[in-house]
Amino acid sequence: TMGACGSSEGDASVAQSSTTAAAGVGSEAVKYNHSIEKQLIREQQTESSKVKLLLLGAGESGKSTIFKQMRILYGQPRSDEELRMYGVIIRSNIIVIIKKIVFLLKRLDMEAALDEESNAAKYDDGELTLRQAYDELLALCGSEGVGSSTASTAPQDANPAGEGTAEVDSPSDVKDWVGKSAQAGPAANEDARLFLKHWKAIRTFWHSQTAKAVWTKRSQANVIDGHKEYLQEVTRIASPTFKPNNQDILNARVKTTTVSKEKYLIDGVNFEIYDVGGQRSERRKWMDCFDSVDAVIFVAALSEYDQLLAESRKTNRMVEALELFRSVANNRAFKKASVMLFLNKKDIFAEKIMYSHIVDQPPFSDFSGESQNFDEGVLYFITKFKECRVDQEDTDQYTHVTCATDTNNMEFVLESARTIIMTQSLRSSGFLGA
Prior knowledge:
Layout: H1 2-49, E1 51-57, H2 63-74, H3 80-107, H4 111-120, H5 130-142, H6 186-206, H7 209-215, H8 228-232, H9 234-238, H10 246-251, E2 260-266, E3 269-275, E4 295-301, H11 317-329, E5 338-344, H12 346-352, H13 374-386, E6 399-401, H14 407-428
Parallel strand pairs: 1-3, 1-4, 4-5, 5-6
Antiparallel strand pairs: 2-3
């Protein structure tokens, strides 16, 4: 009996210890759950205070340039690895543009004018004649066709082991700083190598009056307008000491084939900015970014009123931009979002209207303004875009005429856009009246 009693007391002690241990474990579990709940609340607060901004528009309108401007204005400086990638892309871009201009010259049957200019020019001993330069570039184009490079290929994942020194015919024998970049992709590296081999012919050809005359007809060849800056700077870009500056990077063209995202803390507010491809084949990816968008910046190039789509040679680029804007501005997904319109490339538009008249383009034959008047031309297209909105009230503040490669202009415009976004966000939260 006594043994039984002892056993009973022992069991009670064990039970009490187990209960105490369980209580301890339970207390730890409660603390753990509370910490998780607090973390979730913090994340939810961070998510709700974040501003999600989407860059949309047709291909080559300047979305990615604005994306790069935001990095310059609000982000970190680029690493040497990134600068080398852009160095390769810039040299590659020059090969693409020079092929297009050479082909266009031949197609326009302007070789006789080039010969006349070449024969009239005076050359130093050993200097390439204009005709020799043209023939060298024509041979470069002959077997390869136009534009297989970075203009149509997104950068690949970085692989520093792939970097090296390119074959250089540069102004001196110094090792080329840019070299090769695995990040830029094999096609771009090959074009960059060709640039270093043929840069003198490119320089001679571009400085000719015949090449300048072809340039005014570049809309027939879908040339990237901003790459004229590269053609003016061929000697600098061919130099072994060439290191891309911000302006070089802004003008660089890489087709966007993935959704790019950057995060910036601007005046205490977290901005999450998305850049997506504008070509028709890339637009199916847009839907993945539509959730919980606070603002959309739709970018359209003013200068493309006389150009055709690269992917559809019968469609005017401005007409495509208008139809695309109509679908974006009236999309249910953006009912609570600020949809802003950036009419970009105003500098190129101002140059173009001097020789390519808006009224001569069939889709815009109703233009009644002066053919070379910048303000009348801009106002005409602002009205066209405004007509695309179902709700046209108070939309003027959401329209900006921009030059995405001008950092000062973009700093002012982006600050205005940020004010609109924050005001709209406060209104949606109930802090401001509707």
